[in-house]
Specification:
alpha/beta; TIM Barrel; 3-stranded antiparallel beta sheet; 12 helices; about 30% helix; disordered N terminus; polysaccharide degradation; repeat; Beta_cellobiohydrolase_sf; Glucanase
């Protein structure tokens, strides 16, 4: 995990093209139905919704829909005739020849033909209970002055169009990381600077932090020291009762509980980590001006572990009876694409419902997932300053309420271009020495100019 040393397009996106089929969506080229509502039948084309052309897909002369087959788009050739009518083949599938085609193109065969019956099914999007709005949905998100200064240091080194683009990154909202012993003393200053904007903080001081790697190890000396740290932050949050505060609790910790118990360092601290997370949630979740999200790894890490993850979450929440939690953060400091992350959200949501944890919501770190590098990541699992990444979607509340109703926000949780770690120094990590890790990186949390330039050049959407 990476941290600050001083202070971490959906498929089925709505269309906007009027057509003869729908005032806001294009006609589908085909007739495959994905979703049905009171307007009619919907399909998916080029990763966007389209409206089924009923005139083409349901002609009055076609009787084969009732049998589970589509009508052929033309009148032949006829490959088979039975008591139901004449049959053709399109795209490797049987289709019915409309009766009004007559005998044109007939090529009737008397050979015995086996026709496999298939049933086309339609699916509906799951509906989720309405919850109170998140703090991301009202007003702006706080732009961290620390990150502004870091970006400016790179702006000063650039020129021309790249410098102009870099200057536009400067005020993008990023989270404030509480990741060093003096960070609680800076919280009030950030809340004062945020004013009416939503301020986002990352708690990253758990004992034996980042237990499965070297780059960001550290944290509180023991559980009591961690509780004192939490109490100090809590007091600042409580004294700014009019502030809107989001706090993300301890990135990577939950994921390591699920998958890293083969590591003696992680196994030895699992009980302490559960107690620490519960204490943190219990304190912050008792405040009305704070919304708490527990970090839940990312899709490339915990896919397939949703049930086990939900069980551990349930255990932690049962240990925090005074605190409420809004949901979970994912993709912190990682690169997984939006579609895969949201699919993971829905699976984790379902797993949580099964253990009685209901109505959870999610925020997704989009600071470095503008380029889909998931295939390359799957091969090497290189999390350290990965080559080829780019800035992703800008922070935004409720980015797609139709297709991603569980998603509270896109957010740059890890300030992008702060190094993930280094292959040298006291906390050198071998992952940072791989060929697909950007060379020359400073230690975790330090500004990495070359990384910033890579992210900027590969940004999607561009600046």
């Amino acid at each position: 995990m990476k941290f600050s040393t001083v202070l971490a397009s959906s498929i089925l996106a709505a269309g906007a093209l009027a057509s003869s089929c729908h005032p806001s969506y294009p006609c589908c080229n085909g007739c495959d139905v994905t979703y049905v509502d009171n307007e009619g039948e919907w399909g998916v084309q080029n990763n966007n919704w389209c409206f089924i052309d009923s005139g083409k897909c349901h002609p009055s002369s076609c009787k084969f829909e009732a049998l589970g087959y589509s009508c052929c788009s033309n009148c032949g050739p006829v490959y088979f005739t039975d008591s139901d009518g004449k049959w053709g083949v399109e795209n490797g599938n049987w289709c019915g020849i409309p009766d009004n085609c007559g005998n044109s193109g007939s090529r009737t065969t008397t050979r015995t033909t086996t026709r496999t019956t298939t049933t086309r099914t339609t699916t509906t999007r799951k509906t989720y209970p309405t919850v109170t709005p998140s703090f991301f949905s009202s007003g702006n998100i706080y732009s961290n002055g620390q990150y502004q200064n870091e970006v400016q240091s790179s702006v000063n080194k650039l020129s021309g169009n790249l410098q102009q683009q870099a200057s536009r990154v400067k005020y993008t909202p990023t989270a404030v990381w509480l990741a060093w012993y003096g960070a609680p003393g800076e919280v009030s200053g950030h809340l004062g600077a945020a004013g009416g904007n939503t301020a986002v903080f990352m708690m990253y001081w758990i004992p034996t932090r980042d237990c499965n790697s070297n780059a960001s190890q550290g944290g509180a000396s023991d559980l009591n020291a961690y509780k004192n740290y939490v109490d100090s932050v809590y007091n600042s949050f409580r004294s700014h009762s009019n502030s809107k505060i989001v706090v993300v609790v301890e990135p990577d910790t939950l994921g390591n509980m699920v998958t890293s118990q083969g590591n003696e360092n992680c196994r030895r601290t699992a009980v302490i980590h559960k107690e620490a997370l519960a204490y943190c949630i219990n304190k912050f979740g008792s405040l009305n001006n704070v919304q708490v999200y527990l970090d839940a790894g990312h899709s490339a890490w915990l896919t397939g572990y949703e049930d086990e993850t939900a069980e551990i979450i349930k255990e932690i929440l049962d240990m925090a009876p005074q605190g409420k939690i809004r949901g979970f953060s994912t993709n912190v400091s990682n690169f997984q694409p939006i579609e895969k992350e949201y699919a993971y959200h829905t699976r984790l949501y379902d797993a949580l419902e099964k253990v009685g944890v209901k109505n959870m919501r999610f925020i997704m770190d989009t600071s470095r997932n503008g380029v889909d590098i998931s295939e390359a990541f799957a091969k090497t699992k290189t999390w350290c300053n990965l080559v080829g990444t780019g800035f992703g979607e800008r922070p935004k509340g409720n980015p797609d309420t139709v297709n991603m109703p569980l998603l509270d926000a896109y957010m740059w949780l890890k300030p992008p271009a702060e190094s993930d770690g280094s292959s040298q120094g006291s906390r050198a990590d071998p992952v940072c020495a791989r060929s697909d890790s950007l060379p020359g990186a400073p230690e975790a949390g330090s500004w990495f100019h070359d990384y910033f330039v890579q992210l900027l050049k590969n940004a999607n959407p561009q600046f």
